[in-house]
Amino acid sequence: MKRIASFLVLALVVLSFTVAQGTSFGLGRSTVFRVGPGKDSTGTQVYSFTYVFGAVIFDKKGRIVDIEIDELEVSTPNYDGESMPHFAGWPGTPGYNVTDHATEKVSGVSPNTVESTTADVLAWKTKRERGDAYGMNPKNDWHRQMDAFEKIFRGMTVDQVEAWYKKYTNDKNGRPLNPETKDAAEKAKYDALDAAGKKVVADVRTGATMSINDPHGYVLAAIRNAWENRKPIGK
């Protein structure tokens, strides 16, 4: 995948840091299996999994110097999103409903041959590779929102990232607090913030409103895993 090349580039960038600076580099990941998103036109369940992976450079104090997060989301072929990577099953296994993306109706069953499975896997793209075709937000799709979070987290330790998430997101869905919410608990959490905290919320919402810690992808866990897997640069 083309986007994975960016992780290799980021890995090479760490070579520009000296060992004396105490920098380290970690590759992190997290996985989640999801019942969904939704069902097809016949009522048959859609299933998916998301693999989050991240490359993180830390300074000698554990602060994030640079970070790159991406996700690979794969669903059964009955999901109606055109850019979604699919996996219908191993060759020789029973087929699964296939949805026509133009009509959003089930149009048949997957053949599950060596050729069809190979084609499915070779067509997989990460969320960054899918770009605006991901379809989450026409004006601010997944890759741009993740860029916004990465910018926020630079300069923080992993503990500080987790504390930031706990303080500035909705406890129910993990999305950045919404000042205009009708939810009583979220409103109380937002109202309890001081002026500086409310500015943080306003700033983050200009670039991101999605969750980074739900069944769409556990980004926090991938960042923590990168910290746990870090290795000193040059050793």
Features:
235 residues, alpha+beta, 4-stranded antiparallel beta sheet
Largest sheet, order of strands side by side? Answer: 3-2-1-8
Mean pLDDT: 92
Principal-axis shape: globular
What's the gyration radius in Å? 20 Å
Strand content: 15-25%
Q: Biggest β-sheet: count, sense, barrel?
A: 4 strands, antiparallel
Separate helix tally: 8
Oligomeric state of this protein: single chain
Q: Structural class per helix/strand content?
A: alpha+beta
Span of the ends, CA to CA:
28 Å
Order of helices and strands: HEEEEEHHHHHHEEHE
Regions with pLDDT < 50 over 5+ consecutive residues? none
**Domain module tally:** 1
Helix content: 25-40%
Number of strands: 8
Describe this structure in words.
There is one protein chain. With 235 residues, the protein is an alpha+beta fold. The protein has one domain (2-169, 211-232). 33% of the residues lie in helices and 24% in strands. It has eight helices and eight strands. It has helices spanning 2-13, 114-122, 127-130, 142-153, 158-168, 184-191, 195-205, 219-228; strands spanning 24-39, 45-58, 64-75, 97-100, 105-109, 213-214, 217-218, 231-232. Strands 3-2-1-8 form a four-stranded antiparallel β-sheet. Strands 4-5 form a two-stranded antiparallel sheet. The longest helix has 12 residues, at 2-13. The protein is globular. The protein starts with a helix and ends with a strand.
